[in-house]
């Protein structure tokens, strides 16, 4: 028997004020069982869960868009500086800005209610997770910057984006075999890899394309890709257990400590190394820079620290806390070259090439394939859940 909707509020009210096993008694007929309240609560929970999942997906999509602003910001900083802007100082400045903003956020934003009844881990767990994840990113960044000193930018971008294949491979190995990743997802990863290759190919003369010969710089950049892949994989495992803001603060704090130690070690233990000499020259030139140049440098560092570091650290933690697989999350991150091309065209008037347009289309196709596979798996899981409840 179907009951009118006006009974539901009465049922919920009665359940809170009476100890009788029946929630509400209709005017005629049988009493409605107490399970009605549980059904309504479950429906509300599922609706709220879907809303949160959509929000987490939207936040995750914004991560590569934020990363896409990094290269134009660095180009503006280098153009304003009369001497090369030391990468280690720029990174340290970013981390200081990011840590300060995230710490301020913890003081201003009230703690979110736990998404599950599972107990929240102690603070030391969050700091340990932040130290691990921040270590992957910091060492990976050092290896990447060192490798790019001898590797062309387009080739370096291609090598870094090999994470598109590394993440599903590492996930499959950690889960007991290649079959743990669906065929559609493997196909999507391969398509995304081809798209990145197209975007990295040169349309210029001199033979174009990417050289196949490998050198020490290539090994360093590939090593950084391995560490970035481990970060994505471990974040999918750790993010659901730690509140996103707490994990973001821990990770940014760890990276700030690592950067400070690196600068101190560079200036004291290796004062004659090229990076240390670069830092010394920049500090000397800073006193003679105009106010406009200083403002541009400060704005670039502040933007990168706030948007490409602080926001993305939190956004990755929040987005991947939904339980999304590392492979699916990394496919979203693969769109970074598309955003880089877009912002380069808008901010520094760089015209996209035909190979970049082709690569963008292939990456979009890969994302569509991955999204369809994710939707199919979610629908199958929901059907199994409904079937088990019906039994």
UniProtKB/TrEMBL annotation:
Instruction: Extract the signal peptide range.
Output: 1-18
Where is this protein found? Cell membrane
The protein's predominant localisation is: membrane
In terms of InterPro entries, this protein maps to:
Diverse_Substrate_Transporter, EmrE-like
Task: Please tell me whether the keyword Cell membrane is annotated for this protein.
Answer: yes
Which keywords fit this entry according to its UniProt record? Cell membrane, Membrane, Signal, Transmembrane, Transmembrane helix
Q: Topology versus the membrane, per the UniProt entry?
A: Multi-pass membrane protein
- Listed GO CC annotations: plasma membrane
Protein name, per record: EamA domain-containing protein
Organism annotation: Emiliania huxleyi
